[in-house]
Amino acid sequence: MLTRVPTKEDILQAANRIQEYIHNTPLLVNESLSSMAGGEVFFKCENLQQIGAFKMRGAMNAALSLSSEQIRKGIATHSSGNHAQAIARAAHLLNTKSFVVMPATAPEIKKAGVRKFGGEIFECEPTLQARENTLREVIKKTGATEIHPFNNYSVIAGQATATLEILEKVRPHFLITPVGGGGLLSGTALACQYFSPETSVIAAEPVGSDDAFRSLQSGKIEPAQSQSIADGLLTTLGDKTFPIIKERVKEIITVSDEEIISAMKQIWLNLKVVTEPSAAVTYAALLARKEKFSQKKIAVILSGGNVDFSKILRDFQ
Amino acid sequence: MLTRVPTKEDILQAANRIQEYIHNTPLLVNESLSSMAGGEVFFKCENLQQIGAFKMRGAMNAALSLSSEQIRKGIATHSSGNHAQAIARAAHLLNTKSFVVMPATAPEIKKAGVRKFGGEIFECEPTLQARENTLREVIKKTGATEIHPFNNYSVIAGQATATLEILEKVRPHFLITPVGGGGLLSGTALACQYFSPETSVIAAEPVGSDDAFRSLQSGKIEPAQSQSIADGLLTTLGDKTFPIIKERVKEIITVSDEEIISAMKQIWLNLKVVTEPSAAVTYAALLARKEKFSQKKIAVILSGGNVDFSKILRDFQ
Description:
homodimer, alpha/beta, 15 helices, 10 strands, 15% strand
């Protein structure tokens, strides 16, 4: 796996390496959503990606970067979200094992998503400490290699490939991604620096978990508070992602959960794609700051579409 | 407008004519949905089309086939569904007027969809007789040209272009479309006959409104009964669509509303696209007759994605 900030060549190699295992997802436009925003909006539909999220890119690139001996011993991670499924699918595609540490409280649907690809689940207490300890034990026992959800340069290079696909079709003035741990944002910022320096990268974050926003202000990693419907974005930045972001991302727009739900509903209604709150935060940020984006070309990454329908239904009422 | 069954050239011309006004929609694959079906399934996402349905193709082709004098006087139709919005948008794009006859009982959201594009609505009693009478009066008063939702050769040629786009990417053993009035099915059957005769065209229909199924059996147009969640498929075949279908479509698979809802939920969950019941009927038919499609390549047209969320999400409970 990469031990340095991904270079231009690292990202191009990642794109080439993962190509046969992922979808080159559609870049959709919609008159109503563009008109509401006052600019020309391009939606990169990573919700239509394998396992329903961009996480497949980074997990696959990291797994494919391992030696055959490492691959044979399997890959491991702790995650209760989309990364867990991505790791399980990556291992399945490479005919090896995956070991996923999850809090015992994780929803059954998330566990089923991992088991579907033959992933082995290790349950633990729902604290970061317990997750890290359990993962350490699992790795000691199995010899598997950890693939972190975001604080890993090979994962970051993989996430950057979504932006490569956007840039093959459009050169936007702005590119908006969500920010949680910062893997997608880091990859996006690097890809734009190398391949479209005229594109400004902007992050979108829920106001109830605005740690990345505060980190940019204070100049050091601030801990996340974890209060938002955008459950994929409640993570604190990592020591590999923060420096990349700090240097390249000039602005993070924060939005309320109400704004996220309203944007999500407009996306479902008009674009007709199932979008999770952590993805809709991007379009919410665009609507919240219309004057900035007026008459511009804006690409937004719809990062995932894994939602609990019964919960969403209540939010849409 | 065309006065004969569309030829190969008519369909190619339609594709060329409407190209700049429609999306070339994504053809998506999904491992889970293919595995559930036991074959390789390709979803033609006309739910991601302009106005959220394939109807935009036929309406646009018909409108563009009119003389400039006809266009100036406007276009008219009676419809409470996706065709109404398609006509309104087509007129808007051509800088002319649209006149849409709708039952007074039509949902407000459908009326709003027409008004959004400047369409003028004429309300009437919710009977076919009242709709036809009102349309006749409107046309007499305005001089507008009627564009029928399906019983119109230029509309049929337009709907055929969805199949052209599929065939550019895959040559399936089977192609499944829904059948209501038969416009999409007729266009699909003609396109396959001309451009991929090895592809068998199959229609999918709700068992509660299986008039097309019965019409193929009896050899004459049987009236629809109108009992299904698939509200776009409650229409009786037309005297232009039935002969095309009768000659070219060997099989219509009927499915229950429960099967439609279950298939629709799987599409939302796995493919992450918002699909209306009238579109999910295709995948339901595939699941209902797995042995037939085993190990084959099957394209299904997801015809639209215009749904009432509060209703659909209740069905998902």
